[in-house]
Amino acid sequence: MTAATHSTLFPQVPETPDAVLDGLDPEQREVALALHGPVCVLAGAGTGKTRAITHRIAYGVRAGILQPATILAVTFTNRAAGEMRGRLRQLGATGVQARTFHSAALRQLQYFWPKAVGGELPRLLERKVQLVAEAAARCELRLDRNELRDVTSEIEWAKVTQTVPADYPAAVAKTQRDAPRDPAVLSQIYSTYEQLKRDRSVIDFEDVLLLTVGILQDRHDIADHVRGQYQHFVVDEYQDVSPLQQRLLDLWVGDRDNLCVVGDASQTIYSFTGATPDHLLNFRTRHPGATVVKLVRDYRSTPQVVHLANGLLSQARGKAADHRLELVSQRDKGPEPVYAEYPDEPHEAEATARRIRDLIAAGVPAGEIAVLYRVNSQSEVYEQALADAGVAYQLRGAERFFERAEVREAGTALRGAARAGRNDSLLDGAEGLPSQVRAVLSTKGWTTRPPAGSGAVRDRWESLAALVRLAEDFEAAKPGATLTDLVRELDERAAAQHAPTVQGVTLASLHSAKGLEWDAVFLVGLTEGMMPIAYAKTDEQVEEERRLLYVGVTRARLHLSLSWSLARSPGGRASRRPTRFLNGLRPGSAALGARGGAGGGGGIDRGTGRAPAAAAGRTEAVEPRTRQTARCRVCRRPLTDAGEMKLMRCEECPSDMDEALYGRLLDWRAGQAARLSQPDYCVFTEKTLMAIAEAVPSTEGELVVIAGVGNRKLTRFGADVLAICAGETVGEEPEEGDGEG
Ligand code: ATP
Ligand code: MG
Predict the structure, then answer these.
(1) For position 98, what pLDDT does the model report?
(2) Ligand 1 pocket check: which of 20, 49, 294, 299 to mutate, most ligand atoms within 8 Å of Cβ?
(3) Same domain, 506 and 383
(4) How much is the pTM?
């Protein structure tokens, strides 16, 4: 860990309120100083909107102009809210509520429910789909998975637009919506679904907002109470506010006007849930005296990334596009975006993983790299590929770290040990803060080496490992710090929900990447059907998909890669085409009609005159062996699932695995992982070991063709694995100089 990382993890708090303003440009400063009355910031991606509002709050609090407890900052995701709390804390402002609409509403609802309704708040339904399926069944309809998804989203749309079942058909007619079912039928499912919820005494996600709105509307005493508490409101990502959230915001604000909103119409990506940028774009009409600030300097991305982002927007159409802002990069030149085409998804994933490994080797921290895709189901093949390449990754957001059961338990244990201090025999012989923390956590079953496999046990281990890393960073930043100091730090962070940075490459959907940034971003699976997604039919829906890609591109600070594959599985028909959104922008593609594409044609990217590393139209991946259609070894069915391809058989086909051999391979792997201080899956995944235990290879040639082995692992582990397969005992003596990832 470098000094630079310590200073970002434990940065200096600005000494004076004015010092808080030092980190802002003149326009951002204008935002920070406009502490009263309505304020609207319209600005493109990476221009420092979130930074401006965070500094605004911090400045107001530090200068004593705003009382922290009277501020409610609303962001879009729990993760963004957590990040904002972290940033506020770093700026020396504590006690401000930074939440999502949902969590702010839920808190108020829990508090006021006994008074407003009586009894306990009904249980919150985690997933609607089951209940929607049941409602459909009662209406004598059987819906398949896709239909269920569509009907569920439609019910969500109806709810956030505050449309009750009886009014739904009329609302569809009025908004000219393309309903997934006959509106009369959908209205019936919707109404049955609502009835089922009442019968079972549960509420859903949207009910939390609807009920809070209902209570604030009907109970003036409660509304007054809430308004008495909160007097300043800040909303990030305001372009994606739904009518229901807007209604709630109106009720919170009341007849006052201390409201600051920031957003970028070009990043509207939640229209499908009823969100609309109208509130942002018409802010001045509604608040005639508003301070309106525009930011155009892009501090996040290089000119190369910004060039592509501007190019994408220049092809956009529709209302949001009319308000687009051309971004101007403030950063030094960086590498050109890389465009890469692959024959199939596993190739794309493997090549992506390889590139990521190279970036890490070149010094880019894993936590500063992200792979972003359109739908969550695309993650699996990347999880596998990263595991095979020995790269740690995380799927989960960093939010609510301190709410995890294991972290709370660990906190209690650490607090106990800190209180006992030197009297605690547990700490005997544990020198230094990190080893003390390890000693305490070991009483909670934590081991220095991660457990095998993934799942809940592994998640638990990762959380505790993050606490150990935090202790290491803390000690490095504050030499001589005691366990009591650390406990205090943890309490403060827990209060501010400032989770320690999780190490590993982020795998996330484009939607969940909103507002975030990484040094290197890999946008994968960019084919027609995925981007735009197949069910985007109308012009508006297609435009929203384009904005989604814009959001993806603008997440990158320095390295940006855009890739696609021509077939899903190896040997499949190459029937796919790269996304239309890159036409005229990526080298070798022709512009598509409308509003001149920004990029050059002819295979050379404008700007540098250089062809990017892997120009479209050519296959970038160079593989040592060509792939055949993978077929199940048992039933010969062609395989498409990544996990099944690893096993070389259908999951449900009988396994002819040598169980004893598999056990020996697992033991060997644990030894290797310990020796290399790496997670087990970095040696081989379980699927690969199973495939080995099934194939029992006796030559290098037989071993190398097993998915997940490859030349690199053959060189490192081939001799051992073949020896184990031959029934020999493999020694544990350490090798030297093999610790690299
Ligand atoms: P998005 O639209 O993606 O949400 P944003 O407008 O909210 O982007 P921020 O996330 O606030 O942008 O800022 C983007 C990056 O630029 C951050 O790393 C931020 O710290 C940096 N940045 C913003 N303003 C400045 C500035 N004045 N000086 C230096 N860095 C800045
Ligand atoms: Mg932002």
Answers:
(1) 95
(2) 299
(3) yes
(4) 0.70
